[in-house]
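Next comes a single protein record:
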Amino acid sequence: MAIACSLCPASPIIRGLEMRTWILLGLLVVVPQALWAADLPLWSVPAGFVLTPIADEARLNGQPIRMALLSGVMDPRSFQQAMERQCNSEHGDFHQAMLGSKTLWSCLHGDRYSQTLQWRQEGNRIVGELSTLRLDGGKQEPHPLPLLVPEAQILSDLETRDGSQQGRVVLAQSRLSIPQVRAALLREAHAQGWRLEVSLSAQLRRLSLRKSRQALDIALTPLPMGGSRAVLVWQDR
């Protein structure tokens, strides 16, 4: 699926983007250029669980990644036993960790590939995301960013494509303050022909921009030691 318009800064979803992007960044490994994401095997889940693919093609920092949403009903303990048993049956190495309210499991297959699941409980349901990445190979450079965050380091860059629809989620960290970053982004946006959505950009930490079929939503947060972090959500439909 392409990145939906619900990912605008006014939505609660934007507040989860940084955690999700940090999780993806922590799972980052290199994937061979010739290997498409669809060729990467997802971790097998128990019967009754529903998997929904995320995009026809996805790349994390220029590298192919296969991802899917997971949903199903099962006792958490039984779920862990089933997933660990499946990992062991494929001669994988099972690991687990906590990321806020989410549980992170990984099944490492030597130097070939890594399968990962992050999940949480919603009522009696288990919901989460599966991903698979290769542990060897090359890299493709990401496409140019729609706007450049000034004096910033790109921490994570997730590109998705579904047919003609494209999406992007970028996490960047700048040494500049939020007002400085906002002013620089507005200048660059104006120079590139972006239109400011005033009603969605009233708050200092949020920007919402439009240009033709493209939408670009930006959320800014301060860093404890100075500087700021930016999450950019771009879509072209």
In short: Residues 154 and 172 are 4 Å apart (CA to CA). The chain is about 15% helix and 40% strand.
